[in-house]
Structures are given as C-alpha cells and as structure tokens.
Write a structure and sequence with these properties.
Blueprint: E1 12-13, E2 20-22, H1 26-36, E3 42-48, H2 53-68, E4 72-78, H3 83-88, E5 96-101, E6 104-110, H4 114-124, E7 127-128, E8 132-135, E9 138-141, E10 144-145, H5 153-156
Parallel strand pairs: 2-4, 3-4
Antiparallel strand pairs: 1-2, 3-5, 5-6, 7-10, 8-9
Length: 162
C-alpha cells in the first residue's frame, strides 16, 4: 500500500477528535470511499443530523470508540448535508451506524445502542500482526487475527497492533 493512499485534502477532521472524518461533499465522499475499498480496514459511518437529540447522545461514544479503535476509520455524515449518501445506504432513522469492509456493508446499528455497536465493531475489525508470536504453542507469523478468534488471545499475545 502506498504511503498516502487517500487524499486527505478532501476531508475535514472533526474538531472533537482527529480520528473522525467529516465529509461536506458527495464527490469527496465518493472519491474517499472508492479508494477505501482497496483496504482491509473497517469503516464505521455515523449518519447524524444537527437537530437529532439521540445523535448528540452518541457523539461522545463515537469519539471514545475512535480513540480506542485506531485501526478502524470513523466517518461522520450529516444526512441533510449529504442526502444522496444517506439514501444510498438506505438510512431511514437516526442515529444510524453502517459498518463497511471492502466496500460492502457488513453490519448496521440504528439508535442509541452503545454496547451493540461496540460488539459489532469488535467482531468486524481485524488486526494484522507483522511480528512473530507464540500463541498457545502455535507459531503465528504475519497472520490476520480476529479479536475473538482465539479464546484469550489478548492474554497470550503481548504485541501492539498498529
């Protein structure tokens, strides 16, 4: 992968968290989304609106998740500003969270459901290990790990995934 696969001049970082990207143009969103399809990274799109009370309740949750899950890309899209994008993902209620991998929707959470969203993010994100490690006497080298794949992986694996 290239050193800078995405053109970050086309996106705005949220003022609350540098790990959340906000789009204000459908064309810029489409360009970013098309480039993102080439990665194995999980994308979480937070569909929101300025007038939505439940969306405001989920804002600090999304900020916490973005800080915790640095291997996941968090996107914030205002449904009134980018109506076409919300239509494409069939958003009918707010807040809506769409989880995407390789350009495909893998899950969706609607409403103020912090624990459900957290579980889905953890289930769909994958960690890539570029180091040699021994897990329960199995030699593992440059494999992809799923957080729940090995029972107790975090106990046995003392590597930092970046």
């Amino acid at each position: 992968m290239g050193s800078n696969m995405f053109n970050f001049a086309n996106v705005d970082r949220s003022s609350d968290s540098t790990n959340i990207i906000t789009f204000h143009s459908t064309a810029k969103w489409n360009a970013h989304f098309d480039a993102f399809k080439q990665t194995d990274k999980l994308m979480v799109i937070d569909f929101t609106a300025k007038w939505c009370g439940p969306c405001k309740l989920m804002d600090p949750v999304i900020q916490d998740f973005a800080a915790k899950y640095t291997d996941v890309e968090f996107i914030k899209i205002d449904v009134e500003e980018l109506f076409e994008v919300s239509q494409r993902f069939q958003v009918q209620a707010l807040p809506a969270f769409i989880l995407i991998k390789k350009g495909q929707v893998v899950d969706k959470v609607v409403g103020v459901r912090k624990e459900e969203l957290k579980r889905m993010i953890e289930n769909h994100r994958k960690l890539t290990c570029n180091h040699d490690a021994v897990i329960k006497s199995e030699r593992v080298c440059s494999r992809t790990f799923y957080p729940d794949h090995y029972n107790g992986t975090r106990k046995y694996l003392q590597l930092r995934f970046q």
